[in-house]
Batch of 3 targets.
Target 1
Amino acid sequence: MPLPATRAARFLLLSPAFVLLAACKGHETASAGRVENPQTWAPEKLTSVRGVPATDIESLIQRKLDGPKLDRIDDSQWGHTKRLYKLYGNNPLWLTSDGLRKTRTKALTDAILGANADGMRLDDYPIGALASAIAALKQTENPTAEQLAT
């Protein structure tokens, strides 16, 4: 059964927590080949993302975090996600001023696609919704705040 858009969006909000828990080693950054340490990483404070004011994206993220959690997410995971975004001031954790943060997006997709190797069920994750959200951002020249907050 396909997930409603709001449930998929809330899942994508939880994704940073999943990646931070799943990422055990550093990743190459897109700029200058530096190693990104997930334990010391912090998002840059953005003023806009591809022309969309960061404050618009941040307010949508906050609205989603204030909403109900996904059925498949327990209270502890949802609380962790809320604390993570609060720690970073509801900053868009997946974005740079140019769009998607490539290393974080790749880490997320790799972790989810490799979930079955870790004994997790792929059907527990809305892979189609995630792929659609990422593809929409890659293919859209002028994304909306809603697309960027998802």
Target 2
Amino acid sequence: MDESGSEGAEWTQEHFLLLFARIKSSIQDPDRTLAYSQSLKNMDWKEVAFSPFSAEACQQKWTDVMHKLSKTRTLTELVNVAEDIVSNPAKNYKAHPEHPKRPPPPNAFFIKEHSTAYQMKHPNLSRQMVLKKLVRKYNKLPAEEKNKYLDKHKQASMEYKEAMQMFSKRYKPSQKTTETPEGVSPKPVLSGYHLFCQEQCSSTSTVRGDSFAQSAKRWQTMSDKQKEVYNQRHEELLSQYLDEMNQYSQKFSKVKQREFLKEYRIAKTMTDQKRKNKFPGEPEMPNRFGRTIFYKQQMLLLCKKVPNSRERLSTVNKLWKSLQPEEKQRYKMQASEEVVRYSMELQNWFETLPEEQQVIFWTKNPMKVKYLKCEEQLTYRPSDSEDELTQDSTDGELEEFCKGNARWHLETRVAIDCYCLNSAAKMDAYRNGL
């Protein structure tokens, strides 16, 4: 293969990856554990060469690549690193050449000051051992002597902050924006807390890291009502984004719709639906069953003793079955008290809503109707044995349980309709017909 044929050829990503693969396959077994320089001498570049590049061209290109890599590893490891850099350029992104460097820690100033003299005094020690010895020596220094290096670190930190401010003004960071379809709002941040930090950081001229830390401290001192404002705004932005993306996906076929929603991670989950149905300031529903409270407590207590979640759940299940009826009754009473407290909080909150919002709440949350103290409230209550239904329950027990739930759901739907129509006569007619 003559070299002239490779002079005009350009190296593409595919050529680089092929070169790395052929180098790896050409490394002999005895050379795989040798240092880089020794194994490189044993490399047969004629075996590595491939069209349209000669052996000399491949060797020269590998030399060019190696100028950018550290040579403290084996040849096999270095080839893997080179493959990763070429295949994932974004992952191996380099910082801006003018980006200020963070100041070293205080002990680094001490090491820099004494390393040369210590190395000359102990020539047989490696550089790594010299560093370890000096670190130990610094740690044993009295506080008065350490202050000298602490002051140097503080001075370097102040200079770094000033340099970062100058750098931020000169090179304004480009905002990371996800490519959303035309006519769709940008994807909002993760939560109300992130929305607050985003607004605070954009309104200050300090270093981004310091500004974020200040925003985090400010968020911790805010009241629940102040936080709720940002949480509600985040919910509105997220709901608007999801609605627009789902509406935009209607333009495609069903197959493309699934691909589109999967690409943008907009699958309609139960969590999304619950979040959409939850109103701002609405009380959180507690655990309604004693067994659920017991499971939640024990899963937390046993998390270190039994790390595997499945094994831990099995252990907790056995513990629940071994409890005496009196102990189970205590957890059921605790759940009942939580439900009563929740019912009172929900009723107080519900009365603060405008009539239009009350109708919307009834329509979207039929399962919560029974917790409101209203004239149309229904008499159904979940039995104490509901949380006892397990895989060991008989078909008759399950059938009876399902019948009760089905009738209650029907009555609940009737209550909502009558409430919206504000017709007591229709309520009586429906009840007589059930």
Target 3
Amino acid sequence: MTARQAWLRAATDAEILAAGEVLPVAPVGAELIAAIRAEVAAAEAEAEAEAAAPAAA
């Protein structure tokens, strides 16, 4: 189990980011926050690309 998987047992990505990065029990701290931010940004970019694809066709 990764640190991210362990943390997600207790909180969702949105809850972690909404905490203002002040996490009382974060397993890896800033590294985890950076990884989650990257995953959220990638998911948002993918969703935007999928939403734009039918309009472009």
